[in-house]
Amino acid sequence: MFTDSHSHIQFVKEFPDVESVIVRAEEAGVGRQVLVGCSPGDSLRTVEFVEKYPVNKFKAVIGVHPHESNLLDGKVLDELRQLAENHSCVSGIGEIGLDFFRNLQPREIQERAFRSQLGLARELKLPVVIHVRDAWDEALLILGEEDNKEVVMHCFSGNFTQARECWERGYYLAFGGALTYPKNESLRDLAVAVPDERILIETDCPYLPPQPYRGKRNEPAFIVETARVLAEIRGCSLDEMAEITTQNAARIFRFQEPGI
Questions:
Q1: Do the Cβ atoms of 220 and 205 come closer than 8 Å?
Q2: What confidence tens digit (pLDDT) does each residue in 220-249 have?
């Protein structure tokens, strides 16, 4: 069984055929997904979506993306806290972090929202899912200062030195479709070195489809291609990669065993 550790199938506009998407995922062996919110409204919708399905099929991660960080105030932070406290499907805070590539919000606002949500996660004893783009030094500095213990580096795109710092801190590194792109040889090189217990796979669907599906909407079923490439470069079988990454996802996101 595969686990998609970062999915957005709750996006209504992008997935009007969501039930068919779920069926295709299950047929491909993707039995679990972690659905990740990006804004206050999306976080609520994510929880509502997850709770329509059997326990242990989906988990919800709630938070405010750096692109939306201007929306995070005390009221929104309280709403996120109440969602997490009142809904057992919530298993993380995210996706949060810093994006200095698009810079849709001023850096000081992004950093303030990042620190506030890291604090909320510590208060709730939940892991965090981190978005970083062109801000690796700043993000790692803040994470070190805030000292959150359970951290997932979503769609890892840093260099080898940053990857090693992450796994030495005990963070999880999640790899998606970008791992399969021909020009990403350096990403594949560092993915080989990540300890088994610190590696995850994800789609970030509807974004970043693996190489065979470039130009198409990404969906959870496609995670098998990312797992195949990861297994190949790490010298293990696809079944072994499925087991390793599913066990890791179960540990960090509080899935119950046995699987579905």
A1: yes
A2: 999 999 999 999 999 999 999 999 999 999
pLDDT tens profile 24-50: 999 999 999 999 999 999 999 999 999
Asked if residue 225 has a cis previous peptide bond (ω within 30° of 0), the answer is no
Report how far residue 148's alpha carbon sits from residue 94's, in angstroms, rounded to the nearest whole number: 13
Rounded to 5 degrees, what are φ and ψ at 137?
-60, -45
Give every CB contact of residue 104 below 8 A, 6+ residues apart in sequence.
66, 67
Write out pLDDT tens, residues 169-196: 999 999 999 999 999 999 999 999 999 9
The beta-carbon contacts of 231-240 under 8 Å, at least 24 apart in sequence, are 233/188, 233/191, 233/192, 234/191, 234/192
The Cα–Cα gap between 200 and 27 comes to 20
Cα Rg, the chain, nearest whole Å = 17
Query: How many residues make up the chain in this entry?
Result: 260
Level-2 CATH architecture, domain 2-253: Alpha-Beta Barrel (3.20)
Q: How far apart are CA 80 and CA 74, in angstroms?
A: 10
Please, which residues have CB within 8 angstroms of residue 12's CB and are 6 or more apart in sequence?
Answer: 45
Sketch the domain layout of the chain as residue ranges: 2-253
H/E stretch holding 164 reads helix 160-169
